[in-house]
Amino acid sequence: MAIPTYATVIVQLTDRIDDLTRTFVFNGYNTLSSVLAGPLASLCVLYIVLTGFGIMRGLIKKPMEEFTKGAIRIGLVYMLAMNWGVFSEYLVTLFIHAASELGADLMQATPFDVPVMTGHGVNGGLQSVLIEVVRVGSWTWAKASFKHWAPVFTAMMIYLSGLAVVGLALFEIIIAKLMLAICLCTAPLFLCFTLFDKTRSFFDRWLGTIVGFSLVLVLVSTVVGLCLHLIHWAIGGHYLNHAATVKAVDWIPVFLVACLCVMAILEVTGIAKSIGGTCSTSNGSAMVGGFLGGAMGASRTSGSLSQKAMTIAKAAVPGSVLGNLSHIRGQAGQQSQTAMSGIRHNLGGKE
Hints:
Elements: H1 9-57, H2 64-82, H3 84-107, H4 121-141, H5 150-185, H6 187-192, H7 200-240, H8 251-279, H9 286-316, H10 319-350
Helix pairs in contact: 1-2, 1-4, 1-5, 2-9, 3-7, 4-5, 4-7, 5-7, 5-8, 7-8
Membrane topology: Multi-pass membrane protein
Pfam families: TrbL
Keywords: Membrane, Transmembrane, Transmembrane helix
C-alpha cells in the first residue's frame, strides 16, 4: 500500500472515497432490499387484492382509473426499490457519476487552464495547487534564520491561505459524495414511502437532499475551477522561481484571493442545497403519478379520437354503400356455411 504524501494525498484520498462509497451503496442497497422484499411484496399484493375486491363489491367508491394508476405505480416502485440493475443504471449514474463528470467538464470551462501535475479533473487540480502552496511555503520558510523571522510568518500565511481553499473545496466534495452514498443506499426504504400518502413527505425530503448534494458536486467543481486559477495566479510566479523573490508582504495577495475563494465556495454550497430543498417540496412523490396520469390521459384521448373518426367515416359514406357492404358480408357468411355443410355431408357419406 502506497504511503500518502502531500504530493499524492488528495488523489489517493478521493480515489479511496470513490471505491468506498461505490461498495457501500451496493452492499447497503442489496441488504436493505433483501430485508424489505418479502414484506413489501405481501403488502402490495394485499393492497391490490383487497382494493380490487372492494371496488367490485361496491364497498370502496374509487374510480377504476385511479386504482389502475395506483397498481402501475406500485409495480414501478417495486422494480426501482428491489432491482439493483435498474437503480444503478439510472439513479446512481445520474446523481453521482453524471454530476461528477459534469462538474469536471465545467471546471475546464475557465478561460485559463490550471497546470495539473498529477491526476485529472477536479482532484488533479486541487492536488496541483496544494503542491504549489506547500512548496512555495517551504521555500519561503527555508529563508528564515534566528535573526530574520519574517519569512516564517510569510510562509505560515501562504500555508494557511492555500490549505483553507483546498481543504474547504475537498471537504465539500467528499462530504457530498459520502452523504449521497448514505442516502442512495437507503433508497429501497424511501421509495416504499411513495406508496402511502402519510409518508410521501419523507420521500420528498430524501429526494431533495440527494438533489442538493448532487448540485454541490456540480457547482462546487465549477467554482473550484475559478478558485484554483486565482490561487495559481497569485502563487504561480513564486513557484516557478522557487520563491527566490518572495518578500515579507507577498502573502497579502494570496490571503485576499483565499478569502474570496472561501466565501465563493461557502456561498455556492448554500445555493446548491437550497435549490435541492426547493425541488423536493411536494414534487418528488408526484412524478410517477403525473407520468402515469399523462399516459392514461393520452390513451383516453386516442380512444375518443378513434371513435370520432369512425363516426365521421360513417357520416361521409352513403347509406346505400353501407347497405351493399352488409349484404355482401351476409352472402359471404351464407356461402361459407353452405360449404361447411357440404364438407360435413361428404365426410359422413364416406364413413
